[in-house]
Write a structure and sequence with these properties.
Layout: H1 9-16, E1 23-27, H2 33-40, E2 46-51, H3 54-67, E3 72-76, E4 91-97, H4 99-107, E5 116-121, H5 125-134, E6 137-147, E7 150-159, H6 168-173, H7 181-198, H8 205-214
Parallel strand pairs: 1-2, 1-4, 2-3, 4-5
Antiparallel strand pairs: 5-7, 6-7
This protein binds S-adenosylmethionine.
S-adenosylmethionine (SAM) binds next to strand 4 and helix 4.
C-alpha cells in the first residue's frame, strides 16, 4: 500500500473543520482525497464519497484502493440526493464548486438542515453567504487559505432556523478574521472584483469604500 498523500492547504482547511468522529458525506468528492485522508488519519470512522459524475467516482475508488481506505462508500448522483437518514451522517463537506451550486445543493435536501456543513465555494462566496443568512443557517466560522497562488474561503455552518438580516458588506466580509493575512487577501480580491464591476455600476462605490475601511 502506498504512503498516504498530503492534502493541499485548501482541502486541509476543509478537513480541519470536520469534527472528529463524524460520519461524513463529501459531496462532489471527485478524487476522494478529503475522505480518504480523514479516514486514514483516524479522524472519522465512515465516509460517503458522492459525485454527480461517474468518472470522478472511479477516480475516488482508485484513491481509496491505493491507500487502503475501507470504511468508504461511493454514490453516484446530484448533491445530497445520494444520502439519507439511514446513513446516520453528522457532517457534509461541499467543496470546490461555485457558491450558487452549493446553495442549490443545500436547498435541494432537508438533510442539509441536520448536518454540520463545511462549505468551500470557489466563486460567488457572497451568494452562498446570502443563501445561508436568508435560510436559517448560522455561519459558525469562516476562514481563508492561500493555496497554489489563490485565496480560498471555507465556511462552517449549521441550520438553526433563524433567518438573519445582513448588511451588503457582510456578504463579502462574512465572518472573516481580518487580522489574518489570508482573510485580508481574500477580501482584497472581492474589492478588486467589485471595483471592476463598479466601472459600469457606480452604486457599488459605497460598498467598496465600506469594505476598504475594514482592512
Ligand atoms: C472541482 S471538483 C472538486 C473536488 C473536491 N471536492 C475538491 O474540492 O477538491 C468538483 C466535483 O463536483 C462534482 N459536482 C458538480 N456538481 C455536482 C452536484 N450538483 N452534485 C454532486 N457533485 C457535483 C463534479 O463532478 C466534480 O467531480
Amino acid at each position: 500500500m502506498d504512503k498516504l498523500f498530503s492534502l493541499d492547504e485548501r482541502l486541509l482547511k476543509c478537513a480541519s473543520l470536520v469534527p472528529d468522529g463524524s460520519r461524513l458525506v463529501d459531496v462532489g468528492s471527485d478524487h476522494a482525497y478529503l475522505p480518504v485522508w480523514l479516514l486514514k488519519n483516524g479522524k472519522i470512522p465512515f465516509a460517503i464519497a458522492s459525485d454527480i459524475n461517474e468518472k470522478p467516482l472511479e477516480s475516488g475508488r482508485a484513491t481509496a484502493e491505493k491507500y487502503g481506505a475501507k470504511d468508504i462508500e461511493f454514490r453516484l448522483g446530484a448533491g445530497l440526493e445520494t444520502v439519507g437518514e439511514d446513513d446516520r451522517l453528522d457532517c457534509a463537506v461541499i467543496a470546490g464548486m461555485g457558491g450558487e451550486v452549493i446553495s442549490l445543493i443545500l436547498e435541494g435536501s432537508p438533510l442539509s438542515k441536520k448536518l454540520d456543513l463545511v462549505l468551500q465555494p470557489m466563486t460567488k462566496s457572497e451568494e452562498l453567504v446570502k443563501y445561508l443568512c436568508e435560510n436559517g443557517f448560522e455561519l459558525k466560522m469562516q476562514s481563508c487559505v492561500f493555496c497554489r497562488g489563490k485565496y480560498y474561503t471555507v465556511i462552517k455552518a449549521r441550520f438553526d432556523g433563524e433567518k438573519r438580516e445582513y448588511e451588503e458588506s457582510f456578504l463579502y466580509a462574512g465572518r472573516l478574521d481580518l487580522s489574518d493575512e489570508a482573510c485580508r487577501g481574500f477580501l482584497k480580491n472581492h474589492i478588486k472584483n467589485l471595483k471592476n464591476k463598479s466601472r459600469g455600476d457606480k452604486s457599488l462605490l459605497p460598498l467598496i469604500e465600506e469594505l476598504e475601511n475594514m482592512l
